[in-house]
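Exercise: predict the fold of this chain.
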Amino acid sequence: MQWEDEGVILSVKPHGETAAVAEIFTRAHGRHLGLVHGGRSRKLRPVLQTGNHVDAVWKARLAEHLGHVTLELRKGYAAQAMEDPLALAGLSSMCTLARLLPERDPHPSLYEVTLFVLGYMDDPDVWPALMARWELALLDELGFGLDLSSCASTGAREDLTYVSPKSGRAVSAAAGAPYKERLLRLPAFLTKGGQGTATRADVAAGLDLTGHFIEARVLKPRDAPMPEARNRFRELIARAAAAAQ
């Protein structure tokens, strides 16, 4: 068995004295693991960094085996984010949450969104908002997509301001006004056709929205907590929002 693909490194664990097991989110083969011979060497350590974009060749005698994988670096996003705490937290959060995907189940659309976000990691005015959009895409791929196209109560497609924490459907400002304390805020940049630069406060609201459904629909049934990397990213966004006020 053999395949060649591209992917993003999600995690790396030591294996034995010199090898490592790499977990990669690939375009055509989904979240996949493979043994990297010499993965702990000085040569390969810079390649085996969370968030790096790589070319991968995987081989195994049988499809169900762990197999071994050889990797070549396409772009080192990890090194690019290393000096920016917010970018590093965002990169770690995205890679950690991507591990919620079923193993070896292709998700090409989410993979494309992932590369899109990574491509903007050097633009702090853009990528944080893209992270909230990425989490919406993750929920959709996991089968828990939100319906933000129209108001759940009136069917209106304009002035969508809230989301029901139970149904995951959008609610207009007028329909939601009497219940706004019980609804989640829907920042404009997450609505269809949403334009303009999202503030850090908008991004924080977007992450609160996606975080609620990740916890309630994905993690709680698995009796799992929100990943610390994601909590750290949300905390830094909140600090940035407070500093901007």
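Check your answer against the key: The CA atoms of residues 44 and 82 lie 18 Å apart.
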